[in-house]
């Protein structure tokens, strides 16, 4: 897995989520499976199958978090914001529009209310990396080529 750049807050949240899933989460799933088994025939036991499905999803999430944490590089919010890089908030204006939309350039694991995330490996993210305020960049979208102007770059803490 390639390196994933995330904020310290997201790193800490993933560590906490992993701890909760591997302790309390596993205990709760085990109890649910045990309770469902007590209901009888497992072949037609919807509760049992639902609990086993939930267990599978939880274990997949545990593996996903472990992989992210193993390949994570914490990006400081205090680095200069003179060009687009992971960890910054970028204001974009699409060609032909007046509205400015704000995005966080970073891992999909970054969750901030009211702020969409653009992965640095997505077509838009790749086009934006290294761009400075005033620059126009083009990227391929499902409906064709789109052009956006970088109108502002700032640290995450100034996100709107």
UniProtKB/TrEMBL annotation:
GO BP annotations listed: DNA-templated transcription elongation; regulation of DNA-templated transcription elongation
Described function: Necessary for efficient RNA polymerase transcription elongation past template-encoded arresting sites. The arresting sites in DNA have the property of trapping a certain fraction of elongating RNA polymerases that pass through, resulting in locked ternary complexes. Cleavage of the nascent transcript by cleavage factors such as GreA or GreB allows the resumption of elongation from the new 3'terminus. GreA releases sequences of 2 to 3 nucleotides.
Domain named Transcription elongation factor GreA/GreB C-terminal: residues: 80-153
Stated name of the protein: Transcription elongation factor GreA
Keywords assigned by UniProt, alphabetized: DNA-binding, Elongation factor, Protein biosynthesis, Transcription, Transcription regulation
Lineage: superkingdom: Bacteria
Molecular-function annotations in GO: DNA binding; RNA polymerase binding; translation elongation factor activity
Upper classification of the organism: Bacteria, Bacillati, Actinomycetota, Acidimicrobiia, Acidimicrobiales
Annotated PROSITE patterns: GREAB_1 (PS00829)
Homology family: Belongs to the GreA/GreB family.
InterPro entries per the UniProt record, alphabetical: GreA/GreB_C_sf, TF_GreA/GreB_CS, Tscrpt_elong_fac_GreA/B, Tscrpt_elong_fac_GreA/B_C, Tscrpt_elong_fac_GreA/B_fam, Tscrpt_elong_fac_GreA/B_N, Tscrpt_elong_fac_GreA/B_N_sf
Domain Transcription elongation factor GreA/GreB N-terminal: 6-74
